[in-house]
Write a structure and sequence with these properties.
By secondary structure, this protein is of the alpha+beta class. It is built from three helices and five strands. The chain has one domain: HIT-like (HIT family, subunit A, 2-Layer Sandwich), CATH 3.30.428.10. It is globular, with a radius of gyration of 14 Å. The site of zinc ion (ZN) has 6 residues, from α1.
């Protein structure tokens, strides 16, 4: 738990956000400002600022778990056939605005490439 981290507050339910998935390590919820018909955020319960911090802490299994949950959520939403995108914005140039590691799951429309 990191004080003043909005996603830690979602994990500890200080901020109410309906969870679409939860287990002992990972939770997922709707992005508050969706950029596609399906836009979920998959995060670890434990606070890591970004993917690099989790990797440096030896949390490779947790990182794999986050991607596995993302793929399962995409499949459950019937996105696997049409495709979807997983995004992990990291740091300032990566466009990360919330410094709690998260993976975006975006789907339900064709997504442009390259990103801005
Ligand atoms: P990023 O820019 O990659 O750090 O993504 C942060 C995401 O968190 C943005 O897409 C925001 O819309 C989303 N977000 C911020 N606050 C909340 C919240 N309280 N509940 C759900 N999503 C949020
Ligand atoms: Zn946090």
């Amino acid at each position: 738990m990191s004080a003043d981290c909005i996603f830690c507050k979602i994990v500890d339910r200080t901020i109410p956000s309906p969870l679409v998935y939860e287990d002992s390590e990972v939770v997922a919820f709707q992005d508050i400002n969706p950029q596609a018909a399906h836009h979920l955020l998959i995060i670890p319960r434990q606070h890591f600022a970004d993917v690099g911090e989790a990797a440096a802490a030896g949390e490779g299994a947790l990182l794999g778990k986050i991607l596995t949950v993302a793929a399962e959520l995409a499949k459950a939403r019937n996105l696997a056939a049409t495709g979807y995108r997983l995004v992990c914005n990291t740091g300032k140039d990566g466009g990360q605005t919330v410094r709690h590691l998260h993976v975006h799951l975006l789907g339900g429309r064709p997504l442009g490439w390259p990103p801005g």
